[in-house]
């Protein structure tokens, strides 16, 4: 489904067959890792780029996302690392933390059979402590966003004096996001002897100037990609917050008429977590990933084929080559950042002329990926809305009707229960319709047949100050017996963040994250109360809009903090009801924007 055409500035000899990775000169350990992940032949960008990089030459590659360029620069770097050295030998700059994490995961896969290789992602929103500890222990490869790399250089916590390899990934995107100055500063901090690889989908004048200034006689490689998806696959996407994905998946499963489904997660831990939560909700689901033994993988796939299993949760590697006729839907729980992976994933449905559905979950920060996929595949993706409670309930009632209809077809069993119902009616003087309703309640069990309507968004109006007594009573007599919160001091307001005791968060982590990411001073903090599922923090009441925007993407212990004003009772809801309903003042009403370098910090 993918055709590629590579053009380089060096005349390549005519070849009668496609080269293998072994033909490119990679070591046995790297080749073994490639076999493990199922790579058989190099893509055009890999075949054209790996040999000159292995030979030590600088490279400028023009290639769209999805052509396999991560392996094109990662494999030569992994092949030539010296694990005996502790200082960073390779630095990869990426425009977003998501891409940085993906590139880091790719490095880890390719280095699976090399002992002692340490790879560190460095990006804004992650605590400095984790990064500083890793840097002190020794790191061979750093994959990071320019803003956080600049922070470490400013603090003197990152030494690039022994750097051998530098990669600029998605260079045009970094310029669009305002990273040009940071990138040039980082380049200036690195040794002149380093080898540089620059990859960009386009070659605007600033990129061209940068390559002329910082690269030494680079070999230019251009890959033209034509990627198509089957016209029989209906492609949709849903804008959904990261923490709402599981609930969104559950609602989609309720309303979509699916036969078999594959849900794609980015990592093995995500696939296992999704499968476990789906099973807890009553779905027949199983996970397959790189850690699953081949025999178990075959058993799971056979269960999917036979109908004993309805939902397979998989990573890209585990689903490679999977062809099951009954797969009607593919869901990208984590949307891939390269179009080639997207095409391969959704190609698991709509095969052999059959129709299929592909649904991708897209966080607000990933909107740009939709446009990139549409451009690369030349197929539109239709935005869909989260199925409403009413839609879910209509579907549940239809299925309940179907179960009643099916039961009515079992005449012998119906006759037996008809006698039981008649006996109850005679002895208790209860209408038959009430007995039928009571039997439905018994059959339903603990799980309600219908969902309750979504609660109204919390009102933004604050109570009048004359209502203080009522407000106090409301907290003190609340359903969970929570005590009234202390009043913040003058000029301060109480803010709520979505991390608490069960996330093992401590006050120092809260102060550190908010100070570093929001530019706050130590005296900007008042009291901090850590509750089981959330925390309350006193901060200045007049926080600037820019500070709120920077803090909107901040994470503590890997979790989005979802900073918002604490409004009392409605904000005390359990975590499951929290997502996306009270935070529109700070996050939901903002239009997408281009981020500057400081946003990644």
From TrEMBL:
The residues forming a coiled coil are none
Sequence ranges of Basic and acidic residues compositional bias = 456-490, 572-589
What residue spans carry the Basic residues bias annotation? 590-601
Which residue ranges are recorded for the region named Disordered? 448-495, 560-601
The record lists the catalysed reaction(s) as: ATP + H2O = ADP + phosphate + H(+)
Question: Is-annotated flag, keyword NAD?
Answer: no
Annotated ranges, domain Helicase ATP-binding: 50-221
Chain ranges of the DEAD-box RNA helicase Q domain: 19-47
Task: Report the residue ranges that make up the Helicase C-terminal domain in this protein.
Answer: 248-393
A family per Pfam: DbpA
Q: What is its main location?
A: cytoplasm
Name the domain of life this protein comes from: Bacteria
Instruction: Provide the E.C. number(s) assigned to this enzyme.
Output: 3.6.4.13
Q: Which UniProt keywords apply?
A: ATP-binding, Cytoplasm, Helicase, Hydrolase, Nucleotide-binding, RNA-binding, Stress response
Q: Where in the cell is it found?
A: Cytoplasm
Q: Name one GO molecular function term.
A: helicase activity
Q: Could you tell me what this protein does?
A: DEAD-box RNA helicase involved in various cellular processes at low temperature, including ribosome biogenesis, mRNA degradation and translation initiation.
Give the family this protein belongs to, as stated in its UniProt record.
Answer: Belongs to the DEAD box helicase family. DeaD/CsdA subfamily.
Q: What is this protein called?
A: ATP-dependent RNA helicase DeaD
Species this chain originates from: Microbacterium fluvii
Task: Provide the taxonomic classification.
Answer: Bacteria, Bacillati, Actinomycetota, Actinomycetes, Micrococcales
Encoding gene (name): deaD
């Amino acid at each position: 489904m993918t055709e590629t055409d590579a053009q380089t500035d060096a005349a390549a000899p005519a070849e009668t067959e496609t080269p293998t990775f072994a033909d490119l000169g990679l070591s046995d350990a790297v080749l073994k890792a490639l076999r493990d992940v199922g790579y058989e032949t190099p893509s055009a960008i890999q075949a054209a780029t790996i040999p000159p990089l292995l030979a030590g030459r600088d490279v400028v590659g023009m290639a769209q996302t999805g052509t396999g360029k991560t392996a094109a620069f990662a494999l030569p770097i992994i092949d030539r690392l010296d694990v005996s050295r502790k200082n960073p030998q390779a630095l990869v700059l990426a425009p977003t933390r998501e891409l940085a994490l993906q590139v880091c995961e790719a490095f880890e896969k390719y280095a699976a059979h090399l002992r002692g290789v340490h790879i560190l992602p460095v990006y804004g929103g992650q605590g400095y402590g984790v990064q500083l500890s890793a840097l002190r222990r020794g790191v061979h490869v750093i994959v990071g966003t320019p803003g956080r790399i600049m922070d470490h250089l400013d603090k003197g916590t990152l030494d690039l004096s022994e750097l051998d390899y530098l990669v600029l990934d998605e260079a045009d995107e970094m310029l669009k996001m305002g990273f040009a100055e940071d990138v040039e500063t980082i380049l200036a901090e690195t040794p002149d002897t380093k080898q540089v690889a620059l990859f960009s989908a386009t070659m605007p004048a600033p990129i061209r100037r940068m390559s002329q200034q910082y690269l030494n006689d680079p070999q230019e490689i251009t890959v033209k990609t034509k990627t198509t998806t089957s016209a029989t696959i209906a492609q949709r996407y849903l804008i959904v917050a990261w923490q709402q994905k599981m609930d969104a998946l559950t609602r989609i499963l309720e309303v979509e008429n699916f036969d078999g489904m594959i849900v794609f997660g980015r990592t093995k831990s995500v696939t296992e977590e999704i499968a476990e939560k789906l099973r807890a909700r009553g779905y027949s689901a199983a996970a397959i990933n790189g850690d699953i033994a081949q025999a178990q993988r075959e058993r799971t796939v056979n269960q999917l084929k036979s109908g004993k299993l309805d939902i397979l949760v998989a990573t890209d590697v585990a689903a490679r080559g999977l062809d099951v006729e009954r797969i009607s839907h593919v869901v990208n729980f984590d949307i891939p950042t390269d179009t080639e992976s997207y095409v391969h994933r959704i190609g698991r449905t709509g095969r052999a002329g059959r129709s299929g559905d592909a649904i991708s979950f897209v966080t607000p920060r990933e909107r740009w990926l939709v446009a990139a996929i549409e451009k690369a595949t030349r197929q539109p993706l239709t935005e869909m809305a989260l199925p409403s409670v009413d839609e879910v309930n209509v579907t549940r009632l239809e299925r309940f009707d179907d179960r009643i209809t099916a039961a009515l077809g079992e005449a012998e069993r119906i006759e037996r229960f008809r006698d039981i119902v008649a006996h109850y009616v005679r002895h208790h003087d209860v209408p038959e319709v009430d007995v039928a309703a009571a039997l439905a309640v018994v059959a339903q069990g603990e799980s309600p047949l219908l969902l309750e309507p979504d609660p109204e968004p919390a009102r933004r109006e604050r109570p009048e100050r004359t209502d203080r007594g009522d407000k106090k009573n409301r907290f003190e007599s609340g359903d969970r017996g929570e005590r009234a919160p202390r009043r913040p001091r003058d000029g301060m307001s109480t803010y709520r963040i979505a991390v608490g005791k069960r996330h093992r968060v401590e006050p120092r982590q809260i102060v550190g994250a908010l100070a570093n990411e929001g530019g706050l001073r130590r005296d900007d903090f008042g009291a901090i109360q850590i509750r089981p599922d959330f925390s309350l923090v006193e901060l200045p009441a007049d926080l600037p809009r820019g500070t709120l925007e920077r803090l909107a993407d901040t994470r503590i212990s890997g979790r989005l903090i979802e900073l918002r004003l604490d409004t009392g009772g409605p904000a005390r809801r359990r975590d499951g009801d929290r997502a996306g309903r009270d935070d529109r003042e700070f996050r939901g009403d903002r239009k997408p924007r281009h981020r500057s370098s400081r946003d990644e910090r």
